[in-house]
Amino acid sequence: TLHCITDKPNGINSQVNIIDLDLSLDLEYVAWKLVLFDVFKDKKIPIIYFDLDIVIQKDPVSLFSRIIPDKIIGCSKLHAGVNVIENSHYLYPTFINTSMVGFNSHQVNYIYDYFIKNKDYYLVKYQNNDDRFISNELKDSYSFFDYSEDYYFRNYYMYSFNQPGVNSIVRDSSGSYPV
After folding, report:
1. At 24, phi and psi to the nearest 5?
2. What is the β-pairing status of strands 142-144 and 46-50?
């Protein structure tokens, strides 16, 4: 099943399950992605998430076998196109990139709970960046995809900064993947 978490559902394929953003959270930019760790918590399913600018080069179903219990699995900053020099200028650099992330929905909802309790503080501290928040607050909570096996990349020509959230698609393991 494909899910799309958005505040702008117009024009999305009717086969995609729309999950409305809770705009009362008043999040900014990519901090909206942290909602992923809450909206599926009662489902007890593995989740693979892709930003819309990810180019999927092979069947992503194999990624479900790479999910590690009680952790999120994402991209290494080096394999995700994070500018190492620019990243080093931040007081709180990023070590994980969540443009592509996998997790068991019921095992990582503590990430959202941890964030939301002090969201205003974390939004300022990490400059509205979910990757910096996870990298620095939850160091034992993540691991990385094997880039040589899991080759997906970002399409920088499609990059979107729609506010308040980026229309993002999530696939769970219960359905077929539409091509």
Report:
1. -70, -15
2. unpaired
User: Who wins on pLDDT, 83 or 2?
Assistant: 2
pLDDT band at 178 (very low <50, low <70, confident <90, very high): very low
For 38-104, give the DSSP string: HHTTTT--EEEEE-TTEEE-S-GGGGGGG--TTSEEEEETTTTT--HHHHHTSSS--SEEEEEEEEE
From 135, 37, 45, select the one nearest 91 (Cα to Cα).
135
Average pLDDT over residues 90-103: 81
Q: What angle do CA 75, 37, 104 make, to 5 degrees?
A: 70
Which residues is 46 bridged to in the sheet? 104
* DSSP, res 112: H
Kindly report the backbone phi and psi dihedral angles of residue 52, in degrees, each rounded to the nearest multiple of 5, phi listed first: -70, -15
